Amino acid sequence: MIAHLRGTILEKQPNRVVVDVGGVGYDVSVPLSTFYGLVDPGGEVSLRVHTHVREDAISLFGFATALELDLFERLIGISGIGPKVGLAVLSGIEPRELIGAIERGDLARLTAIPGVGKKTSERIVLELKDRLPKAHVVSTVAGAAEPPVLRDDLLSALMNLGYHRPLAEKAVDAALKTTGRDAGFERTLKQALRELAK
């Protein structure tokens, strides 16, 4: 089973990336949250991987953070939810927001995700409400633990892309000052990558 890939991006498009590892190209499906943090083709990438085996295919699903991978594996563990729906969920909502929506039983937010209907949303809440990743549970009190959590996720994403911690910390802090804490993961990550490119 493949659990991790580090290599060079040969091709990238939303929801899919081809990673060259020692001359072998791996076709990896990724959620949009991971895609937005990827460098351009020719750059280095490091992904956590879930290997999905079926009778007719072996599919790889890649994630920038341990939290994304954890949530994906919990989602596909629910009866009736396959990898495509799991990927759609993580492409339509940020991991922290997903945890909050499940904790609150916010079906309206979950059904707003493209490809997720009311029955699927109900199943997600029912199955995962008491089984969320304990280390990542976010307090539903407004603003509680939000800035450090966002900062940690951004740092993890940049370090997975191969940047050294001191450089990544500097870029994340500069990005958070520019975008503000309410900008969200994707926008702040893009800003951090701009800081690194300066």
Class inferred from helices and paired strands: alpha+beta
Q: How many structural domains does the protein architecture include?
A: 3
Unreliable runs: 135-147
Question: On the 0-100 scale, what is the average pLDDT?
Answer: 84
Report on the biggest sheet.
5 strands, mixed, barrel
Order of helices and strands: EEEHEEHHHHHHHH
Could you give the count of β-strands? 5
Name the helicity range: 40-55%
**Could you say which overall geometry the principal axes of the C-alpha atoms support?**
globular
Strands of the largest sheet, in order across it?
A: 1-2-3-5-4
What is the CA-atom radius of gyration, in angstroms? Answer: 17 Å
The CATH superfamily name of the largest domain is 5' to 3' exonuclease, C-terminal subdomain
How far the N terminus sits from the C terminus, by CA atoms, comes to: 39 Å
Instruction: State the CATH architecture of the largest domain.
Output: Orthogonal Bundle
* Top CATH class of the largest domain: Mainly Alpha
Instruction: State the helix count.
Output: 9
Strand content: 15-25%
CATH topology of the largest domain: DNA polymerase, domain 1
